[in-house]
């Protein structure tokens, strides 16, 4: 009887210890691997994640949030849980630079201010090597006119690609010729 | 396994490949996914877009052709009806129920009797004739209305850049 009543608190203590042990074990690798590297090649924290936590807990310092996210590998729910369970976030070392907050996050839905410029078509479709070769395309034009529709799937794909490349290269040649003509005209008129 | 949507898309792909409209080319990026296409539109002659080739991405919904695809240009297009991120805003891409402004005719909007070919032809003529009633790019729309020369200069510059010049 006495044995049995003793067992319940023991069991509770065991479960609590096991839970803490597992948590400690799971947290450790993430923290351990990122701590020494700091900002330079640690996990890249998404400013959006910092915003997410900061919106839930406006009283927290963004730097501390960033530091905690940095150490747990960008796990928002882990940081949230940490705050909710009443543990304070650690103060980051002075060398830690959190990523800058996203600029103009309020005007997100409006025009994106600094959009990255899109790559040109020559780069996009890997045509740099074929830009200078004018005769090749002209020759292939007449020699092997691709059939409009092929029964073979791979051939269709290849035809598509060839037509695409020809379209771009033809436009490029035309534009180039046009510019050359213009430059020549302006050159002769100037001299 | 192939859904009616991908069957229909395949049929349209076949039609567009066998008999493409002038200056237009389109097809799936890979036949593994019939719901993602790439289209190429040549700039219409007699417009500042002339000489350019404008690639765009078409994303089809799983219930195509009940719902329209979305279309996004993959190069910079300075145009009143093209958002800064390249998304095209044109009535044929809008389902009939989805018109808060009520300025578009139901017949101009998306319905299953429209097609990829009709979308691309509409977009081509949109390049030539912007619709500034409901601009997607307000700055471009204003410039098109008030400073046409500046507008054409930007368009031409974008065309040159997109050809790697």
UniProtKB/TrEMBL annotation, chain A:
The keyword Ribosomal protein does not apply. It is a single-pass membrane protein. It comes from Lophiostoma macrostomum CBS 122681. Pfam families: CUE (PF02845). PROSITE patterns: CUE. Residues 91-101 have a biased composition (Pro residues). Belongs to the CUE1 family. The keyword Manganese does not apply. The chain crosses the membrane at residues 6-26. Residues 102-116, 136-149 have a biased composition (Low complexity). Residues 150-182 have a biased composition (Basic and acidic residues). It is found in: Endomembrane system; Endoplasmic reticulum membrane. This is Coupling of ubiquitin conjugation to ER degradation protein 1. Residues 87-119, 136-191 are annotated as: Disordered. GO terms for molecular function: ubiquitin binding. Residues 45-88 form the CUE domain.
TrEMBL record, chain B:
The active site is at residue 89. Keywords: ATP-binding, Nucleotide-binding, Thioester bond, Transferase, Ubl conjugation pathway. InterPro entries: Ub_conjugating_enzyme, UBC, UBQ-conjugating_AS, UBQ-conjugating_enzyme/RWD. Residues 4-164 form the UBC core domain. Its EC number is 2.3.2.23. GO terms for molecular function: ATP binding; ubiquitin conjugating enzyme activity. GO terms for biological process: ERAD pathway. SMART domains: UBCc. It catalyses: S-ubiquitinyl-[E1 ubiquitin-activating enzyme]-L-cysteine + [E2 ubiquitin-conjugating enzyme]-L-cysteine = [E1 ubiquitin-activating enzyme]-L-cysteine + S-ubiquitinyl-[E2 ubiquitin-conjugating enzyme]-L-cysteine. PANTHER family: UBIQUITIN-CONJUGATING ENZYME E2. Belongs to the ubiquitin-conjugating enzyme family. This is Ubiquitin-conjugating enzyme E2 2. It comes from Lophiostoma macrostomum CBS 122681.
């Amino acid at each position: 009887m006495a044995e049995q009543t003793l067992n319940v608190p023991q069991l509770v203590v065991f479960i609590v210890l096991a839970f803490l042990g597992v948590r400690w074990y799971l947290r450790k690798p993430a923290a351990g691997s990122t701590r020494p590297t700091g900002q330079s090649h640690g996990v890249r924290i998404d400013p959006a994640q910092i915003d997410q936590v900061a919106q839930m807990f406006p009283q927290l310092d963004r730097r501390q949030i960033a530091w905690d996210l940095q150490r747990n590998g960008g796990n928002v729910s882990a940081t949230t849980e940490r705050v909710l369970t009443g543990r304070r976030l650690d103060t980051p070392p002075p060398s830690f630079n959190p990523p800058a907050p996203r600029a103009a996050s309020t005007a997100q839905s409006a025009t994106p201010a600094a959009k990255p410029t899109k790559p040109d078509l020559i780069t996009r479709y890997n045509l740099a090597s074929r830009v200078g070769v004018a005769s090749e395309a002209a020759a292939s034009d007449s020699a092997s006119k691709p059939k409009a529709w092929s029964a073979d799937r791979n051939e269709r794909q290849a035809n598509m690609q060839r037509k695409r490349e020809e379209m771009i290269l033809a436009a490029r040649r035309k534009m180039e010729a046009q510019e050359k003509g213009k430059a020549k005209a302006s050159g002769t008129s100037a001299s | 396994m192939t859904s009616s949507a991908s069957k229909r898309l395949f049929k349209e792909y076949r039609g567009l490949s066998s008999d493409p409209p002038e200056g237009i080319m389109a097809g799936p990026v890979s036949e593994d996914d019939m719901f993602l296409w790439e289209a190429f539109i040549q700039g219409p002659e007699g417009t500042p877009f002339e000489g350019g080739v404008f690639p765009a991405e078409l994303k089809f919904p799983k219930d195509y052709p009940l719902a329209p695809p979305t279309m996004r240009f993959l190069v910079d297009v300075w145009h009143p009806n093209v958002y800064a991120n390249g998304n095209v805003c044109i009535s044929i891409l809008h389902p009939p129920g989805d018109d808060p402004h009520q300025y578009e005719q139901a017949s101009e909007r998306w319905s299953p009797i429209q097609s990829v070919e009709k979308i691309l032809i509409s977009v081509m003529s949109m390049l030539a004739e912007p619709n500034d009633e409901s601009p997607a790019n307000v700055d471009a729309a204003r410039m098109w209305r008030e400073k046409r020369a500046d507008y054409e200069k930007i368009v031409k510059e974008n065309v040159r850049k997109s050809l790697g010049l």
